[in-house]
């Protein structure tokens, strides 16, 4: 893929995600635009993980579109190709399952993901932990935040070995969070 094709793919994915998430907001007190989250994943992958694969970056931008918007995997595949759609499929929770079962399945399925999906999932957990520390969801008590941190570590345990740099970023924010929760208790 040429540099021009790579840029086109990434920008098309960003525009598509922005359109599909246009009415959604994050759970923080400021109700940040949802698109900030997929954009942050792409930034983490590039700046902290050294990831340059345009299809992985496109999958990061699109990772929540099927799960959280009226977008199908067939649409992702038609617009962005089978590899991007495959990663998005790996990153999409089955909303027909109870939340506790979806969370359990993330832990179970983490080790079997492709390298690209593991990178995106790792960036997703880094982003979510940072948001919980810096821009926490409104109405989340300390024990819910701590429980999310503990569960995220279980997910990331199955992703280990894919990116030492991203794993170090995760370990840093995870340790900061556990320290903050211990001090608050």
UniProtKB/TrEMBL annotation:
InterPro entries associated with the record: HD/PDEase_dom (IPR003607), HD_domain (IPR006674), MESH1 (IPR052194)
SMART domains: HDc
HD domain location: 34-129
Name used for this protein in its record: HD domain-containing protein
């Amino acid at each position: 893929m040429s540099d021009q094709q790579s840029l086109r793919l990434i920008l098309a994915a960003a525009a598509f995600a922005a359109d599909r998430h246009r009415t959604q907001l994050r759970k923080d007190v400021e109700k940040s635009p949802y698109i900030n989250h997929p954009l942050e994943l792409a930034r983490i992958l590039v700046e902290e993980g050294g990831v340059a694969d345009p299809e992985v970056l496109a999958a990061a931008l699109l990772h929540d579109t099927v799960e959280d918007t009226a977008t199908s995997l067939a649409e992702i595949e038609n617009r962005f190709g089978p590899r991007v759609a495959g990663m998005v499929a790996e990153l999409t929770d089955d909303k027909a399952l109870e939340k506790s079962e979806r969370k359990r399945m993330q832990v179970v399925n983490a080790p079997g993901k492709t390298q690209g999906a593991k990178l995106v999932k790792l960036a997703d957990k880094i982003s979510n932990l940072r948001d919980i520390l810096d821009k926490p969801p409104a109405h989340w008590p300390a024990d819910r935040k701590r429980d999310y941190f503990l569960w995220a570590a279980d997910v990331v345990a199955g992703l280990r070995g894919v990116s030492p740099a991203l794993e170090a970023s995760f370990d840093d924010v995870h340790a900061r969070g556990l320290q903050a929760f211990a001090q608050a208790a």
